[in-house]
Amino acid sequence: MYDNGKEAGYKEGWEHGRRDGACKAILESTPLQQFPQYHLRVLYVPQGFEAIDTGIIGALRTMVTELHVVDDLNRMYEMASLLRPDLVVVLNGLHIFPANHLEQIDAIRALHIKTVIWFVDDPYSSEDSIRIAPHYDIVLTHELGAIAAYQEVCGGQVHYMPLAVHHEWFKPTTIENQYTNDVCFIGQGFWNRIELFDAIAPSLSSRRVIICGGLWDRLKNYDLYGDAIRPGWMPVQETIRYYNSAKIVVNLHRTTEPGSDNRNTLKLPGLSINPRTYEISACATLQMVDIREDLSQYYKPGVEIETFASPSELESKIAYYLEHEDERRTIALRGLKRTLQNHTFSLRVREWLNLIMKQEGMPNGKDNKESN
Fold this sequence. Notes:
Blueprint: H1 4-29, E1 35-45, H2 50-63, E2 64-69, H3 76-83, E3 87-91, H4 101-110, E4 114-119, H5 126-132, E5 138-141, H6 147-153, E6 157-160, E7 181-186, H7 191-199, H8 201-204, E8 209-213, H9 222-225, E9 229-231, H10 236-245, E10 246-251, H11 275-282, E11 286-290, H12 295-298, E12 306-308, H13 311-323, H14 325-342, H15 345-359, E13 366-371
Parallel strand pairs: 1-2, 1-3, 3-4, 4-5, 5-6, 7-8, 7-10, 8-9, 10-11, 11-12
Antiparallel strand pairs: 1-13
Helix pairs in contact: 1-14, 2-15, 3-4
């Protein structure tokens, strides 16, 4: 006869084994996508968002004839003038970019090289991005609520382009005991997140909880979380381990209200889901996310993902799904399958390459061969 501790350990191990087996079956049954080869020379300029940059670079390498990546943002123009690419693709263009960023882009355009920027921080830096956008030939944004603002100031093309996941990084992995938790949240403690986690602190105080990121000392109920708070920046690979080891991962988008937590002085609405939505689902963990307008285009709530609209609803759903393992696992696995089928960076990169070449009248250089 097992004592209670052994029984609990046996049950948890059994559940982990079932999850691992189910994930393996989905991965093996989801065919590798076939992608066309484009005769293009591309110069890619990273933002420093490790998972996003690496996912895009990996996708471009499989699809374009020649890819170069800028390793010094002060050398964007220098590299473009030497390489004469068909496209210069810039991710975001914020935060770490040098003061002469736009001068460099203007000079690149003067060489008759097409320039593309993909804003992935919208709408939280609208006072900066609205100034940057007109300097590019083509503007992509993952935020539906920013489209109209860019269209007002841009003479070039503006397109809605959702984000995706670097699925070679964010994927199901074997759970390591030291990371195991009931409820996980990874991200900065912006004020709307502080309000939520203060409200649900009493109900989570008896759970195994992990909260990682900065600004969480703002919590009024900090003491109720105790060792659950892991302050500071979380490396991507650690994030992946925590996502895989959680029973539930909470995803709360940051506030769009102008103030200390963002530079959204244009007061653009937040209508679109963040990259975390895809990343959590790619790890085959049940995700509970606040509702954004475009969410249902990408995941079916209650089937492939769970949603909440208030602290009390989140508390109720956490309690329910922690007691209903089969339902929790089923939704998580459906989310994994949807992500692999529809939301990888390879799929997004193919989409915007086709869009750019078609609308800009560029010869697409696509041959009849298919490439992985």
